[in-house]
Write a structure and sequence with these properties.
By secondary structure, this protein is of the alpha/beta class. It has two domains: 284 residues, Phosphoenolpyruvate-binding domains (TIM Barrel, Alpha-Beta Barrel), CATH 3.20.20.60; 61 residues, no CATH class. Helix content is 42%, strand content 15%. The strands form three sheets. Strands 1-2-3-4-5-6-9-10 form an eight-stranded parallel beta barrel, surrounded by six helices. Strands 7-8 form a two-stranded antiparallel ribbon. A two-stranded antiparallel ribbon has the order 11-12. The structure holds glyoxylic acid (GLV) and magnesium ion.
Length: 349
């Protein structure tokens, strides 16, 4: 048992006081880059204004013999590259890897005041977050940081999914969770070789026609991720964290990527990862509420200024609950419009 009164106290003497509310900012897309790649680093000032979040990746996709180069590349980028007001995050190596400790020690020591969020892969339970929480507090105190580093967990093991509620509730640092379909598929022994998206063999089929048993039967592809993403969204919403969809690996399939992102958006996710510049635009479009929905939501709010009662609008019943849905839509639209004049015009805000 941990007393709720202690959640607002630092875990090390001299560390900053952790926030009790997670700041909500435009978070439609987390764009991943390889900090060991000098060509990619040179493009960052141009990419920064196009994304909501930039993330220097140290974990999977960075080969073992470039781990140190990637870490040092990120230190240099954090110190020297002007990214405007685009937040800089990192994904460090997992807790059981030989790189985790040096990743944390070096990054917090060198660019701890520059990083906003540290993404921790393969989180399995609250114990992982407790360890990171205390270690970060000690390093914040040692390096006299004035702002608490936030933690973002990747949900990508069967044990992690089993413990997702406890992971979200483990620390006030918990900013959010990203869904990691590739590692999760391996952890569960799913028989797939993909990074996100559906699978044509995961389907349901109508019954045979008794009068014509050999006639073709209609099938519908199912969503293998629905259960876990929905659990993640509930765990995040219940604890004030933000849920994200993670990677979509088939860069040559923008429509499949868009469908996967939209399913996550409709279920409650705030954003997704982009692994390639072409996915940036897809994520921003999908995770910005549709213009017609925002306009309709504004009409509902105007028609029911105090959010109570019941009325009909375009033949659809509106009551306290639809008013709340409309408020979610308009609040997000206003948040995004404040940063994007084109969206502001489209929404009429
Ligand atoms: C992301 O890290 C994944 O494993 O899908
Ligand atoms: Mg992974």
């Amino acid at each position: 048992m941990r007393s709720p009164r202690d959640f607002g106290k630092p875990l090390a003497l001299g560390a900053p006081v952790p926030p009790l509310e997670i700041p909500v900012k435009p978070s439609r897309v987390i764009h991943f880059f390889d900090p060991s790649n000098a060509k990619m680093a040179a493009k960052l000032p141009d990419i920064a204004p196009q994304t909501d979040i930039l993330l220097g990746n140290l974990e999977d996709a960075i080969p073992a013999d470039r781990k140190v180069e990637a870490r040092e590349g990120l230190v240099r980028i954090g110190r020297e590259v002007d990214l405007g007001d685009t937040p800089l995050w990192t994904r460090i190596n997992s807790l059981d890897s030989p790189w985790f400790l040096d990743d944390v020690m070096r990054l917090v020591g060198e660019i701890g005041d520059r990083l906003e969020v540290v993404m921790i892969p393969k989180v399995e339970g609250p114990w992982d977050i407790h360890y990171v929480d205390r270690l970060l507090a000690q390093l914040e105190a040692r390096h006299k940081l004035r702002r608490t580093l936030l933690v973002h967990a990747i949900l990508e093991t069967a044990l992690g999914v089993t413990n997702v509620e406890e992971i979200c509730a483990a620390s006030p640092r918990m900013q959010g969770i990203s869904f990691g379909p590739a590692d999760l598929a391996a952890s569960r022994r799913m028989k797939t070789t993909r990074v996100g998206g559906g699978h044509p063999a995961y389907l349901v089929r109508t019954d045979p026609d008794p009068n014509n048993p050999n006639a073709p039967r209609v099938t519908a592809q199912q969503d293998p991720w629905h259960y876990s993403i929905a659990r993640m969204v509930d765990a995040c919403a219940a604890t004030g964290c933000l849920p994200f969809y993670g990677p979509f690996g088939d860069i040559s399939d923008p429509l499949g990527c868009e469908d996967q992102f939209r399913a996550a958006f409709l279920l409650g996710c705030v954003g997704a990862w982009s692994l390639h510049p072409s996915q940036l635009e897809i994520a921003k479009r999908v995770f910005s509420p549709p213009v017609e929905e925002v306009k309709f939501a504004k009409r509902v709010l105007e028609a029911m200024p105090d959010g109570r009662g019941v009325l009909m609008l375009d033949g659809k019943m509106q009551d306290d609950a639809t008013w709340k849905q409309c408020r979610v839509m308009v609040t997000l639209a206003k948040l995004l419009a404040a940063k994007d004049p084109q969206l502001a015009r489209a929404y009429g805000l």
